[in-house]
């Protein structure tokens, strides 16, 4: 026993932080506990989250959920990081078109590439979804998965957000990173379920959110096994395989995760169906919507937005008992670097 | 400290089992260690597996792999459980056709259903893959995901293997279950990557292999979000969404897991491409083929088999340094119940 007792003795300090994370610890006096969700103000929103986690992890309680079933899913754009003035992945597409332009002289006169090269986003918008898909294929397909991974990784290392100039990876919401940590400390398995491209996101989710590649569900293009120079690779094809948005989200969750989550966070009508699906379950469940109400510290938008439109889901949040998080009043701090 | 010391005191016995699992423990004298992979004979196959696990988990060694990258993937049919005299999922389809027959009087004269109802598997085989797909759609689609889950769960609870009469879930290979445990004890994350239907397998993988639903990759049909009686559900459609076999396996791994495994086990040419893809990596990697050589205790088959044909992969195993496991000589015991 000597060795084990010695090891115990060297464990530093009381297990207060771990204990408070694991229980929600709302029974301790405020001064005595390491405050969970520190970037959240002391509002009803924070309390509802803590109460739910506490209920699901209290063994013997009526809201208890076994650890294996504690699956939590998060939309990405507008829920975990900024989606204004445009989706970050669109920022990648715009930069990539500029990088590739010398190899494509025809783009100077071909829409929507010509608009992008001229910095005319309204011109790009005129081409609608068809134009965006065309740009997506030109920038996301035609290389191997390893090559694409490197292109995206290199881009994230230097590309700056158009308004703040910060790295895009610094546009993640600190309160949500804290929520992810808090859920994991309570044995929740955290997933991203996003309309964004799965291989695009996977390059940074571990670093930014602590979410490994295998816990990212997203839209994807098809790949094809091929032997190139004697080595087996996967080649990315200009063909959409799966759109993980709207009604595609519950289908994507079923496909990739294979069981129903009990916690869901979104911010737009693209999350509506998965929120309905999760909250229709018989057992304990929790849904939250991030409402972008802070035009000073971030952006204020909902019903009229081109990116992350929040309309129907906001109308129904009350009667469905979905928590609406008001960024302006519920969040003490939005970005780690602000 | 009192409570924690008391808890420690109640931990029973020395941590020898855990320690030997975690290190491979080949340095300990044989009598002192809890023998890992107990149903494997002391052959070169067992030693190669242990050596690889030991190398990947020895911090500072040249073969070391960080825990997050320790992804191990297993084919299912013929690798983790029996696939003779036919795939277990085909057994489900045959039984299901009989169960549904009263609702489908037209099946009495319609192939391939008529052959199935007459117990004529050769007649079914005559219809080829097209016939099998038709039966698959008739038995796997048209219900919600929850309903399908219940149908399969109920079937597994009572259906018996045609030769042994045992539950199909008892047709899992004990040495492979031990290998899964051994890998997990060494911080490997274990996945199934199978040509079988993902929602079919997910009903039993946790119980049979200790693999949760979210770590099962397989073939799938499309699902569609729908509101039925006011509740959101996913309806299974008679439409193939993804075939996770042959060149589809590396694509499936990339799609669902998003990083390259370092350990792969298969048993047929349907596993060839994923084995090539995994073993073409620069870092440490390991591939093994289960060779069905034991006609007495299980089945003996390879190049001519209708299910689990092993031909090209067997020819190339030597020069690609893939371990070929000889079931007859390498496995002390095949099934837990034998």
Describe the protein.
The structure is a homodimer of 338-residue chains. The first copy, chain A, is built from 15 helices and eight strands. Chain A has 338 residues and is of the alpha/beta class. In chain A, 42% of the residues are buried. Chain A has helices at 2-10, 16-23, 44-57, 88-100, 113-117, 121-126, 128-140, 145-158, 174-185, 198-202, 205-209, 248-256, 272-279, 312-317, 327-330; strands at residues 71-74, 189-197, 216-228, 231-242, 263-266, 286-293, 300-301, 323-326. In chain A, strands 1, 2, 3, 4, 5, 6, 7 and 8 form an eight-stranded mixed sheet that branches. Chain A folds into three domains: 1-35, no CATH class; 38-85 and 164-330, Rossmann fold (3-Layer(aba) Sandwich); 88-158, no CATH class. Chain A starts with a helix and ends in an 8-residue tail after the last helix. Residues 1-26 of chain A have low confidence and may be disordered. The interface between A and B is large, with 40 and 39 residues.
């Amino acid at each position: 026993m000597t060795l084990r007792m010695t090891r115990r003795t060297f464990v530093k300090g009381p297990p207060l932080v771990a204990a408070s994370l694991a229980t929600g610890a709302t029974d301790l006096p405020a001064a005595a506990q390491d405050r969970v969700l520190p970037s959240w103000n002391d509002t009803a929103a924070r309390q509802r989250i803590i109460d739910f986690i506490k209920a699901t992890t209290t063994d013997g309680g009526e809201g208890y959920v076994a650890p294996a079933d504690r699956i939590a899913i998060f939309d990405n754009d507008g829920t975990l990081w900024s989606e204004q003035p445009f989706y970050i992945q669109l920022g990648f597409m715009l930069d990539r078109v500029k990088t590739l332009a010398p190899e494509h002289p025809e783009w100077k006169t071909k829409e929507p590439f010509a608009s992008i090269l001229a910095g005319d986003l309204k011109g790009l918008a005129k081409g609608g979804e068809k134009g965006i898909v065309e740009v997506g294929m030109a920038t996301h397909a035609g290389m191997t998965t390893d090559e694409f991974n490197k292109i995206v990784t290199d881009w994230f290392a230097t590309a700056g957000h158009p308004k703040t100039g910060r790295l895009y990876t610094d546009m993640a919401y600190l309160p949500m990173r804290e929520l992810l940590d808090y859920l994991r400390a309570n044995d929740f398995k955290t997933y991203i379920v996003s309309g964004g491209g799965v291989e695009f996101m996977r390059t940074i989710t571990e670093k930014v959110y602590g979410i490994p590649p295998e816990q990212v569900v997203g839209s994807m293009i098809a790949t094809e096994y091929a032997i190139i120079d004697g080595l087996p690779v996967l080649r990315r094809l200009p063909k959409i395989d799966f759109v993980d948005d709207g009604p595609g989200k519950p289908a994507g969750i079923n496909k990739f995760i294979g069981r129903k989550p009990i916690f869901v966070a979104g911010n737009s009508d693209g999350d509506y169906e998965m929120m309905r699906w999760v909250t229709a379950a018989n057992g304990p469940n929790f849904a939250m919507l991030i409402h972008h109400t802070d035009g000073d510290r971030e952006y204020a938008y909902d019903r009229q937005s081109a990116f992350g439109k929040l309309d129907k889901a906001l109308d129904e949040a009350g009667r469905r008992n979905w928590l609406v998080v008001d960024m302006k009043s519920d969040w003490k701090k939005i970005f780690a670097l602000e």
